[in-house]
Design goal:
By secondary structure, the chain is mainly alpha-helical. The protein is about 85% helix and about 0% strand.
């Protein structure tokens, strides 16, 4: 049990660092409520599972090919800047009701999935952390135990995303429309900043 709890904690630790995914999910919960933020997190979790599968089967080595890395940096930049611009546009909405009607729940899920899938930092994180976990335990554990431990990591990520969605939806009740617009403005600016950083890395890798 202690071993499984340590892997759940690892999943929480992987999700906790401040970055574009957490910022966007928190902003989604503050603007639209729990279900939107929760589905955003589920989309991001689906991308995490894909990364774990790629690392497990050794396919992550292809992500080290320079042309693929350049594509990931540039496309990730596009996704973040596009999402940031959407957030800035939503910051001019008049009230909570109009903010919530502006976007479907599936759109939140898709946005979370694409942001996590095309986030180069997430890719490098999973290769480094999960790859190290596999390398350390592959000789000592069976495939079944490795699968169980991997599911425990996903449970940790699941718990973190649920917590973010719950907290953001709770805080939303106490916020004025003006403050929600400020949150959208700050989040959008942050996402665009991350996008510009990724874009600079992609352009730099071309030269």
């Amino acid at each position: 049990m202690y071993g499984l709890l340590s892997y759940i904690y690892l999943g929480i630790s992987l999700s906790a660092p401040v970055g574009p995914i957490n910022a966007a999910q928190m902003e989604t919960g503050l603007r639209k409520g729990f279900s939107y933020a929760w589905l955003f997190g589920l989309g991001a979790i689906l991308a995490d599972i894909i990364f774990m599968i790629l690392v497990y089967f050794g396919l992550a080595t292809y992500l080290n090919i320079p042309i693929i890395q350049t594509f990931l940096w540039l496309f990730g930049s596009f996704v973040l800047i596009y999402t940031g611009v959407e957030s800035l546009a939503s910051s001019v909405q008049a009230n909570k009701k109009s903010l919530q009607k502006n976007e479907t729940r599936f759109h939140s899920f898709r946005t979370g999935f694409l942001m996590s899938l095309m986030n180069p930092l997430s890719i490098l994180f999973w290769i480094g952390i999960y790859g190290s976990v596999l390398a350390e335990t592959a000789d000592d554990l069976s495939s079944r135990q490795i699968l169980i431990n991997s599911c425990a990591i996903i449970c940790g990520i699941f718990l973190w995303d649920y917590t973010i969605a719950l907290l953001s939806s709770i805080f939303r009740r106490f916020m004025t429309d003006r403050f929600l617009r400020v949150i959208s403005l700050l989040s959008g600016t942050s996402l665009i900043g991350f996008g510009l950083y990724f874009g600079s890395k992609g352009i730099g890798s071309l030269f």
